[in-house]
Amino acid sequence: MRKSRYTAALIVILLAAVFYGAYLLKAFTVSVPPTRNVTVVLKSLNVRSDYWQTVNGGAQAAAKQAGAAIELAGPLQETDGDAQIQAIEEAIQRKPQAMVIAPFNDERMPDLIRRIRQAGIRLVIIDTPLGVEPHPPFVGHDHVEAGRLAGRKAAELTGGRPRVAVMTDFSASAVSLQRKQGVLHELSEYPDSLYGTYSADDSEERAYDIAKSLLREEPDFNAFIALSQNTTLGVARALQDTGYEGTVKLVGFDGSVSEIQMLEDGALNAMIVQKPFNMGYLGVKTALDELAGKRVEDAYIESTLVTRDNLYEPEIQKLLFPFIQNP
Amino acid sequence: MPGLRLLHSPLFPFKSIRSSISFAFSCLILASIAATALFSYRLAVDAVQRNSQSYVEGIIQQVGARIQSYVDNMENISLLAMSNKDVKYYISDNTFIGPEERLPYEKRISDLFQSILYTRKDIASIMVFGYNGRYVSDRRITTLNPNVKLEDQAWYRNAREAGGKSVLSAPHVQNLIKGEYRWVVSLSRELKSTDGITAEGIFLVDLNLSVIDDICRQINLGKKGYVFIADPEGNIVYHPQQQLIYSNLLSEPIDDVVRAPSGSSFLSGGRGDKRMYSVQDAGFGWRIVGVAYTDELIADAGTIRQTVTAYALVGLAVSLLLSFLLSHRLTRPIKKLQADMRLVEKGNFDIQTEIGQRNEIGQLGRAFNLMVSRIRDLMQEIIRTQENKRKNELQLLQAQINPHFLYNTLDSIVWMAEQKQHEEVVLMTSALAKLFRAGITKDQELVPIRVEAEHISNYLLIQKMRYHDKLDYSIDIQESIYACKTLKILLQPFVENAIYHGIRNRPDIGHIAIRGREENGRVVFEIEDDGVGMTPEQLSRIWTPEEEIRRRGIGIQNVNERIRLFFGGDYGVRIRSEPGAGTLVTLTIPKLG
Lengths: 327, 593
Fold this sequence. Notes:
A: alpha/beta; Rossmann fold; 2 domains; 6-stranded parallel sheet; elongated; B: Beta-Lactamase; Beta-Lactamase; Heat Shock Protein 90; 5-stranded antiparallel sheet; 18 strands; rod-shaped
């Protein structure tokens, strides 16, 4: 019965060809990816925190673009480290495919990171780098570069002969340190350009007081660089009150509405504005890329310099007023 | 015959027709089903895509209409303001005597604006700016942002340039009022004096951008789809992810958007994020663009694909089965025929194959049956012929050494010896010796006519010596045919017959004449005697084999058969005889050599 064996073999081969064809057909088509889900843990969920709301906006945009599900977690207040730890622990229980975390500097954090990894969850750190090994992908602002931008602008405002008083916030703040490092690095290119650094503990009042006392005697400097929103506002107010606005230049950080008014008024000459939207977007996008098996790298987001001249350019408008609020 | 060559090519490495047919069928079926499935899948997907395209276009049209209605509304408000006498008077060149005279106007205009604003939640603010420096808003007390110069504002400049036509701005942050920063879309228009020529101020209506934002966000274009707005120059007026655009994290094919005619759609993007752009012109110069991801629009594509594949597989299985059955049915009679042929090969000629069909294979079977029976007949005939031949040879041998003839001849020799006829004894004995030598020693059937002539003359010599007073003979054979071949001992039986039946019964001397000649390419022998002859009954009897057996000699019939077997049916023996008149035997053979 040789022939029937041949026939049987033929049938088997043909059927195999058919199924292989069907398989190829399937493989060639775009398979709808299974819904990916990402949990984003921020430092604050407060709707009044423009910064974190904007980060959230960017994260949502990235998730929507990729068709991924996103869940938000975090403490209500930006100072509540315990609440964030708890939020992360709860998130680990839910076992999302990826987590994007803007961590507080807390000694419990490395342990949590290890647990996240053990649970097989992909991790991306945003905003504040964490000193853990191996180092998870990081997306954040380049604060040193932002500081250098401020230093450069101060030099430009003073006609290339800057003599700068630097107003820092917490001396322990990593962000502040990096900004200061950038500022000093840039100023070091000019002779005798640093008048002094003053710590205001991120208090508007302290900054106001320090600036006012510096301005009381005949000031031996021509520019302020204030490294946070509160110190910027304090210094700007001090300049307005002492009548030195315009004479002593001020380069500040962040882009709150009060600062914008100061900028319009002329007390603030320039401000360095971050792009939290981009950070949120890139953070989630990096996590999704990692899930898709792509190679991911750390991303550092540049800040933007805003002056009175470019204040109402569409791009800057969108940066400074990220939300279209209902009246 | 390319088809045949194809069947022999390495593409068809099958030994049986059935496998080849099955394979060819299967290939055809596979190809046609694959093509059909592919086509129907494409058609279905196209249909779904067209449907979703018109669905998206419809939605975008609605978006355009809704935005248009808001813009129309703003336009109506501006018309209302333009036609308002208070507004006209307030911004005209009239000089007011004092604030007492000015304030009622401001209050009335502000009240008007406020009442409009009351009914329209979408309007952020209404203001009018006279070129004379006066301005009124919908608020009682309006504190303008001191850092804003009206002339720098796009809406102000554009309205002045448009000269009376309303101008719609791109979304922007309105910072006119101190401490207020709102995202709005501004409609502005230059106001003319009553004469319609002199420009007197700018009227401004701000629409909350959140209105447009809501409209665009409420649109359901799948999870990932969205709506954006561009102006005819290709600037993006509104985009839900404007920041991504500014950061170059997202880009739109804006050239294609500008080029596409209103109400049309086009596809953009590569695999994985193929997007359909549906473009619709709104009346005020904006292009509403709907973006939908095709993989979301054609969510059914997977289902369609699965269904089509399932049907294709079922169809394929059924038709493969059919093709095997069909090829089996087609080749079964051929196989049967093949098996029967194998039996014939082994020598069984009694096989008759069954003929079931009336088609070519049936005809083949019929022809086969015919051929087999014909072969069987021929074989039997050959066997019979061989038997006859052998019998003839035996008889021939007997004829040569007919014992009676030998005894008689020896008797004659003895008798002659007693009579002391030494010469005759020598003659007869030598003739007898020659006679036997000619017959026994030569194996071959054919001998030259010369040998046959010698043979018959030896024979007659002996007979003449025995019957010397009764027999006379003559041999007349043309010398030209001496070299030609003839069957050996062809003439002897007839001479014998002539002597024993014709001459011996005659009272006086009988004569036998033997003649041989060529005639029309044949050799003709005649043996004529003037013996008693035969009646027709006798004549017919000598043709029958019984007679021959009885007489133990070679029969006439036998010789005739020998000639026919050897030379074919055209040759043979003819006998003419009359009682009392003698007998004439005519032998015809072909001229050989």
